[in-house]
Amino acid sequence: MSFIDSIKERARKDKKTIVLPESMDPRVWEAAEKIIKEDIANLIILGTPDEVETYSRGIDRSKITIIDPHTSPVLPLYVSKLVELRKNKGMTPELAKQMMIEDYMYYACMMVKMGHADGVVSGACHSSANTLRPSLQILKTKPGVKLVSAFFLMIVPDCEYGLNGTFVFADCGIEQDPDAEKLAAIAISSADTFSLLTGEEPVVAMLSHSTKGSASHPKVDKVVAATRIAKHLRPDLNLDGELQADAAMVSSVAESKAPTSRVAGRANVLVFPDLDAGNIGYKLVQRLAKAEAYGPVTQGIARPVNDLSRGCCADDIVGVVAITVVQAQALEAEEKAAQQQNN
């Protein structure tokens, strides 16, 4: 069983309801048909009758819940709640209604906020900003999390590195140029994400163009500082830096460049120093190594909301939906455990 198949299997065991707000993209409908056939999630797709008919031709929609935000009977309830949430930002009923019928992502996030769905996947035909802005305005960040970041789950075929070719790459989607504290937070979130998705120990490499002082530069200093902060905050993590990518993954290189590091040569979580490096890195691996790339998946939002690359295919959407279900399962388990502890 492939790694993504194992994620799908976990999703099937406790299906959650995921909203897809991009009814205007044929790839979404193709993915939806596969998701229903594979029994991965309960799906809600948002769109008008015209949008649905235009973009879903040939798709079996019988087991998909379709909601038109324009005519939804709960729209007034959502409008009232959005005004309450954003009243200090000047939100009015008229503006709230306009936002939800013109930008379905707002409606989707309200569904999750009100407990009518468990997660959202969007971004096939919208920018990351359009996906994340409503999420942060409505759902906010998860308690105890310093920032929202994004990762790609990378599955590289015939690869001896990482966890049999499986890696988490971060941040590849949100933080443009994180400072040392933010970079440390990204590393911690990414380690926890790797544990959740794989059930295995994360081995976290803080990447740089330098390995253990081989170069001197303020950008290297940032990674060194981030490594120190992350180790202080989470001494339980197997985390080290600064490391070049080859030293992080290849044991023979690690022996010469970082012989005392417990991470070097074993890393399965790669934390990039900035968004340029992360985005370039994942796209190179995806295209040149023919890797599966699922994401950018967010970490740190109070409820599961995940982005897609606009270059995604239907199978990418299926994989991200499966990951979103697993995230929702984990969140539900956390909340039940907290409730039992409080009782």
CATH architecture of the largest domain: 3-Layer(aba) Sandwich
Counting structural domains, the number is 2
**CATH class division of the largest domain:** Alpha Beta
- What is the overall number of helices? 13
In what order do the strands lie side by side in the largest sheet? 8-7-9-6-5-10
Q: What kind of sheet is the major sheet?
A: 6 strands, mixed
The percentage helix is 40-55%
- Give the mean pLDDT: 93
CATH fold annotation of the largest domain: Rossmann fold
Distance between the termini: 40 Å
Approximate strand percentage? 5-15%
Give me a quick take on this structure.
With 343 residues, this protein is an alpha/beta fold. It has helices at 3-13, 26-38, 49-55, 75-86, 93-102, 104-113, 128-138, 180-198, 218-233, 245-249, 251-257, 275-288, 314-342; strands at residues 17-20, 42-46, 65-67, 119-121, 149-155, 166-170, 203-207, 238-243, 269-271, 292-299, 305-306.
